[in-house]
Write a structure and sequence with these properties.
By secondary structure, the chain is of the alpha/beta class. The protein has 8 helices and 8 strands. It is globular and about 50 Å long.
């Protein structure tokens, strides 16, 4: 493993203290290190600040006005010291080998900028009826989520920060910029992320906002591709 490299793990959170301890524990359980854990409270209005304080010196914590997960991730990266960035939502978990498996790919392919992996889903007990009905509809090889990402800091220096005007599709928009700058991306077959399905998943609240975000993304990409930069 490239021993000189370090990974900064950014955990955005908004009113999500219930599962935070488990998320942080899954980072601490990683077989690869060193790892820096940065938790960014996106203006929570419940007891999340108390839950964060309970983690003590295990993490670096920051708080900001509510602006969405993209702005929280951007703040975390701005304070990060690692040469690699990884992201974990506060209600999800990583398998213990997640970072080690992905870092091995960067060692094998020095030109690699971004590694993605697969996701598996599991439902809280209160939603077992939903699991029995809908589990076959979710793709456990899904890679379109931030917890699957491990990226070089230098890639973000080329693309710029995440678009914090988007509430749900900031990863989609950023991946288009990765493509535009010629970023080298690899999706590995390993399923290394566990996504918890519960009552307040952001995906349950998208609705019309996702349609609006897709229109914004398409318009901004067209502007970037125009020689004069105009829409």
């Amino acid at each position: 493993m490239p021993s000189a490299e370090s990974i900064s793990c950014v955990v955005p959170i908004y009113n999500g203290g219930l599962y935070l301890e488990e998320a942080v524990a899954s980072i601490e359980a990683q077989s690869w290190g060193p790892v820096e854990i940065i938790v960014v409270d996106d203006g929570s209005t419940d007891d999340t600040p108390r839950m964060i304080a309970g983690l003590g010196t295990r993490i670096r914590a920051f708080r900001k006005e509510n602006g969405g997960s993209a702005s929280a991730r951007n703040l975390g990266m701005a304070h990060a010291s690692g040469s690699f960035f990884a992201f974990l939502d506060a209600d999800d978990e990583w398998k213990p080998e997640k970072l080690a498996v992905q870092m091995a790919r960067f060692e094998h392919r020095p030109e690699l900028d971004l590694s993605l992996c697969g996701t598996e889903h599991w439902w809280i007990p209160e939603l077992q009826h939903e699991a029995e009905t809908h589990s076959s509809l979710l793709n456990d090889r899904q890679t379109g989520a931030f917890p699957t990402v491990l990226a070089r800091r230098s890639l973000f220096e080329r693309t710029g920060p995440l678009d914090d005007t988007l509430r749900h599709l900031d990863l989609v928009e950023w991946m288009l910029r990765v493509k535009d700058v010629g970023g080298v991306v690899e999706t590995i077959p390993d399923t290394l992320v566990r996504r918890r399905i519960h009552h307040t998943n952001a995906s349950r609240q998208r609705g019309d906002q996702e349609i609006q975000d897709r229109m914004v993304i398409a318009r901004k990409r067209m502007q970037r591709r125009r020689p004069d930069g105009r829409g």
